[in-house]
Structure formats: C-alpha cells, structure tokens
Amino acid sequence: MLVTASMVKDLREATGAGMMDCKNALNATDGNMDAAIDWLREKGIAKSAKKESRIAAEGLANIFIKDNRAVILEVNSETDFVSKNAEFTSMIDTIGNTILNSNVSTLEDALKLPTENGTINDLIIAKTAKIGEKLSLRRIEVVEKNATENFGAYLHMGGKIAVLSVVEGANSDVAKDVSMQAAAMRPEYVFIEDVPEEIVEKEKAVQKELAMSEGKPADIAEKMVEGRIKKYFKEICLAEQEFIKDGDISVATYVKNNHGTIKKVIRYEVGEGMEKRNENFAEEVMNQIKES
User: Fold this and answer.
1) What is the set of domains in the chain, with CATH numbers?
2) pLDDT per residue rounded down to tens, the chain (292 residues)
C-alpha cells in the first residue's frame, strides 16, 4: 500500500513519534494505522506520547558560545536524577551545538533543525522514549555580539542556573563576574529603566502608606519614599546591586571601572515559573512500573 504524507501526519499526531519512524512503521505494516501504532510501541518509540501531560520541571540549563554567537537554553526532565544521565547531557550538547551552528533564533525554528537522528524535536521524542521520562526543550535565546563586546558565561549548581552576560569594552572576566552576580543575587531586572512603571508606582504607594502610618507628615513621607525607592532598585536591578566582591560599589560601577558597560544579561533558572512535581520517590517508581 502506498504510504502518503497524510498517513504519516496522522500517525505522528497519534503517537508523538518522529516523521521517519512513522513512515517506517507504516511501510512495515502495509499502511495499517493500528498495526503501525503497535509497531512503534513495540520498539519503544510511541511511549513518549503518553508522557506529554506529565510535569517536567527539572533538568539543566546550558550555554554554548562560538565566536560572536552564543546560545542559552533550558531542557527539562521530570526528575533531577535524569539530569545527571550522560545520555540526557549528551542530548543537550547536540541541541545546543546544532542551534549554535545554525542561523535560527526562535524555539519553533530550533525544533525543526536537522541532527544525525532526525530533527531536534525527533531527537527529544526518541530520548523521551528511551530514558522513560518526558523531556522538552523549554526555551532558548540566541545572542549576537560585535567585536568590541565580550560574553560572560556562568553555570551554577551544575547547570541549575545559567547566566549569559554581554559587556562592551570590558573583558570576558568582567562579563563573567556580572553573570556570577546575577546567578547569586537573582535580580528581577538589569536596569532601572527595565522596571515597568506600574510596578514602580505601586511600590511608591506602598512605601508612602508605610511612612504615613509611622506618623510622618506628607512632605517628609514623600522624601522617605524617594530614598526607599532607591533602595528598592538596589535590590531588584542587577546594575544597581552592591557588587558581591566589593560592597562599596555597584555592579554597574564595577564594570565602568573596567572601562565597560553592561549591554545584556540573560538568566535561566531551571523550572522557574513552572508547576513542580509533588510525587515522592516511591510513587514515582510505582508509576513507572505501571507504565512498563
């Protein structure tokens, strides 16, 4: 029976398997959809489809740099145990270097990039089936710099936090110090101008109300708010924070003292903003036994 593109598409949607795997399954079963699904399941390829609804909030973040191009990414797994798996880390290396050596800049386009084992999306599906946990490429950012700029890359806790900084004028050691600061101090923004106006106004209102509740006159309360907002910015903005290695200066001043300026900082913390698993280890093992 002639296997059509439509048949391959239907099987792919039903199983989550890669395009070539679906085509091979249909060829091997003479185009019988049910038999093709069984063929994929027998080879362990279709297992990944069952895992799509499961929570994957562990994993690793990493940074890949080549000349004036850098890629920071986060790849998720269901358990921290898998993030130490050599096959998982090798997959991340393949994904990162494939993106680095391409001209794509979006997650959607990255998933379509070819590797030795199909597209990046196909590779993730295959590894999901083999490793036995839901895996996903959650996010990427591609950064290009010019000749007067330098990258600073830092991985914390083995890749649970990854920070990529770009500084102009200063060297890569200074850029790395900026990244280490961001990893440790978890700033919400890089510069004061990055803070949305509504957040600033809300904080001013809170601080004014606090000052008034302390019995301060309105004019004094206004002046107190100004001082407290400056302190607030020093907490949430990387450039304004006290530099960890020298508390007498800010991060921006440290970079300026080294003839540079901060251009960009990207901080990925694995699983931030995601729902976390609440299963214990025994339940996890039992779940895997039931699925096997």
Assistant:
1) 5-50 (1.10.8.10), 54-144 (3.30.479.20)
2) 788 988 888 887 767 677 888 889 999 999 998 888 878 867 666 555 555 556 667 999 999 999 999 999 999 998 889 988 999 999 999 999 999 999 999 999 999 999 998 999 999 988 988 888 889 999 999 999 999 999 999 999 999 999 999 999 999 999 999 999 999 999 999 999 999 999 999 998 888 888 878 887 777 878 888 889 999 999 999 999 999 999 999 999 999 999 999 999 999 999 998 766 554 444 544 454 444 4
Dig out the tokens for 87 from the structure. 């096959």
